[in-house]
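User: Earlier you gave me the apo prediction for this protein. Now I'd like the version with adenosine-5'-triphosphate bound, so I can compare the two side by side. Same sequence as before, with the ligand SMILES added.
Assistant: Got it. Here's the input I'm using:
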Amino acid sequence: MSDVMPDAMPDAMPKVMPKVMPDVMPNVMPNVMTDVMLHCADVGVRFGGVKALDGVSCVLAEGQITSVIGPNGAGKTTLLNAFTGMVPMTSGSISLRGERVDAQPPHVRAGKGILRTFQNLEVFTNMTVLENVMAGRHRKGAYGVLDAFFKTPRYHREERECREAAMRALEFTGIAEMASLPAGELAYGNQRLLEMARVIAAEPELLLLDEPAAGLNMRETRELGTLIRRMRDELGITVALVEHDMELVMDVSDMIYVLCFGELLASGTPLEIQRNPAVIAAYLGTDDEDYPDGDADDDADDGADDCPAPDDSAEETGREA
Ligand SMILES: Nc1ncnc2c1ncn2[C@@H]1O[C@H](COP(=O)(O)OP(=O)(O)OP(=O)(O)O)[C@@H](O)[C@H]1O
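And here is the structure of the complex with adenosine-5'-triphosphate:
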């Protein structure tokens, strides 16, 4: 155990123990030694009078899938946006592999490997599938405008490498045979896979997935779960997943954080979260007979009003302050 471990450990011990303990640990701590990819400490975000996040701390362990769940408006997307720098924080810090990044703009963090997908599909429908994926890969290219204009050997070499990497990403996601089709002709589920291929081709270190199962049927959602696990296991990508589909979340997650009205309600393994009385009462609901086999999405929607304040100060959080 690291010599920087605090003397007094929290009562509830999480499952992923970072090698170097951040100064603010989640209320549940892991038991497998692993590196910290991203550490967010005491993060606050306000939109006018609304506290979207208030004092949220969490750890994304390297090479693991960490999910963030919670009712509508709980602050999940805002947390991802804080990771990428797309919203200004009113308090707290964010570190990537121990380096503070919260003062850095989104493109700098993207250059360090923090990439994301969005709730809404962002596919260029008038481009081919391959061109879409190559567009995602181009952030890694180093040739300049003059190289492109004069079609220099460097330009040709990098374009070939870009094309090869894009094809590998399409093969990984299982849609390589659609490479030459206009992206707009793909069925919705395949457009989701295209989006995944594009972000895979960009070689993320930390991939933030914002409701990737939205609009997918049950079979497609299961296949997506398999793909996300393969991204972790075969590509070594650290994943942060925001998702309402509880079957998917419980299936793929190593660690889960539960947000409620902008505050951290609980954290733990899927089993711990399923057994957590506060989570059951506030979010998952006790009357879903199918759970955890069924989709608890409806509960997620319905649970918002039931979400208890994690502490006395939470009354304003996620609502008008
Ligand atoms: N750009 C914005 N301007 C004003 N308020 C915002 C903005 N973005 C989010 N909010 C508010 O912040 C709170 C958290 O929103 P957020 O989208 O992060 O929740 P969420 O948990 O991702 O919800 P959902 O599951 O519905 O996507 C909500 O009260 C929301 O209305």
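For your comparison, keep in mind: The pocket of adenosine-5'-triphosphate is lined by residues 47, 50, 52, 70, 72-78, 318 (CB under 6 Å).
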